[in-house]
Request: fold
Amino acid sequence: MNLKLVALQTLLLLPTVVRAPFERWVKGTKIDGGPIFIVGAPHSGTTIMLVLLDSHSRLYAIPGSTRVGPSRLTPILPPLFNFLTVGNGKHRWVEKTNDNISHLDTLLSMSPEARVILMLRDGRDVANSLFERTGSLEYGARRWISDNITGRPHWDHPRVRVIKYEDLVADSAATLKEILEFVGEEFEEECLQHHLRPRRYLAAKVRQPPDATGANFEVHRNWQVNQPLFDGRGRWRKTLSREQLSVLSEAGVDELLAEYGYPPD
Reply:
């Protein structure tokens, strides 16, 4: 590879890449709303929420999980996100990092207009999904419990909205209208047609791998977010044995299920 040639080609491309956002600024595109953060335990619907909001004409999804909350780069990330957002012709950005459920105070302090969407899902489905991914049911249970206990003190914050995955699936339009009203945006039908535009958040190609394990996990997830919203409620009933449910119960899942309004087995 001719590194000098690659460097020259990169420099020639750079002005065009940089110029586009400023051209949009001149034409009137600008950031005119606070950031939107999506948090929650893994496998609680955070990624699909990001995709749905990215389908809105005014909202831009920041690619990947940036960990903007605890990052040393926190002071410089919002301006970068603003640049990316304007460069894509949008007006507000949406960022999703599951672990940021531990840094809600930091997120809310970034802007008085910041909004947080905290995704909640039945702990048995979350634990089951993480079990399929990691092979540890106890890890799935502990992670669901820990993340939701951490986020619970912020449930009543006026700039935090708890959204159940189950409500999103059961009545997608009504739930999205609630979310968009919360963040101060108009509902758009396009948000429910997210699968019509290919997205490569997690992999370079949109394809279904033979399984969802190991190196195929991210490819599988990327394929999933390119599909119409599917109903993943109650999958634990088909896959978890009584013994496995006992593991969840002993870990303390049942107690929180009741508190969060989920029916018992």
Q: What stands out?
A: Residues 1-12 have pLDDT under 50 and may be disordered. Strands lie at 36-40, 59-61, 92-96, 115-120, 160-164.
